[in-house]
Amino acid sequence: MKTARPICYALAWLGVGGICVPADVFAADQPVPRPEVTASALQPIGDVALGSGGLLTGRVLDENRQPRAGFDVTILADGRTVATTRTDANGVYAVQGLRGGVHQLVTPETSQVLRFWADGTAPPGAAESAEIVCSPDVVRGQWGGHTPMFHRAAMWATNPFLVGAVVATAVAVPVIVHNTDDDDGPHS
Questions:
Q1: What is the pLDDT of residue 40?
Q2: How far apart are CA 56 and CA 96, in angstroms?
Q3: How far is 87 from 93, CA to CA, in rounded Å?
């Protein structure tokens, strides 16, 4: 029985040590691939009514709503290219022979997910054409990006020893202040 106690203590300390060691220590050399979340995956899907013969018309505009001439527009369905076209001098594009369903419109600067409706089947709120507005990239996220300084700050902020020290200080200081006030004598 006496030999089991040191083994239990050793296992307990290994468990506590494993919890306290930052996860980066055990991380693999190669990052684990994560599915890419694009801005289009977070946008609501718009409805667009196709014309007769599956005609889709639209415009590509910049952030100031000015037409973008000579822009390539690719239309994807289920990750496969179903059509490609280029905008004219007025930023207008047109594609014939499309079918209803969810599609992704991709330009060199942005992408947009739309639901195409066959001629005569679109809901009342469906747009007659698909406008694509290209705007500067917006990056949102915690810690302000993946700079080394913020990575280090995030690592320190999640370090269990540092968090424990902050919590212990937050508990100890009021207790010490309270006990010090009691030693001064009676209060009037």
A1: 47
A2: 6
A3: 5
Instruction: Give pTM, 2 decimals.
Output: 0.51
Token pair, residue 80, equals 């496969």
> In this predicted model, what pLDDT tens digit does every residue of 40-51 receive, in sequence order?
455 678 899 999
**Secondary structure E strands in the chain:** 46-49, 56-61, 72-77, 80-86, 92-95, 101-106, 111-117, 130-133
Q: Can you tell me the distance from the alpha carbon of 92 to that of 58, in angstroms, rounded to the nearest whole number?
A: 6
Q: Kindly report the CA angle at 144 between 143 and 145, in degrees rounded to 5?
A: 95
Q: Sort residue 79 into left (φ over 0), alpha (ψ -120 to 50) or beta.
A: left
pLDDT of 181 reads: 66
Map out the domains of the chain with their CATH numbers: 4-34+141-183 (no CATH), 39-133 (2.60.40.10)
In 3D, which of 9, 19, 13, 63 has the Cα closest to residue 164? 19
Average pLDDT of the residues of the chain: 78
In the block, which residue shows the tokens 């280090």?
152
Which of 30-34, 78-82, 135-139: highest mean pLDDT? 78-82
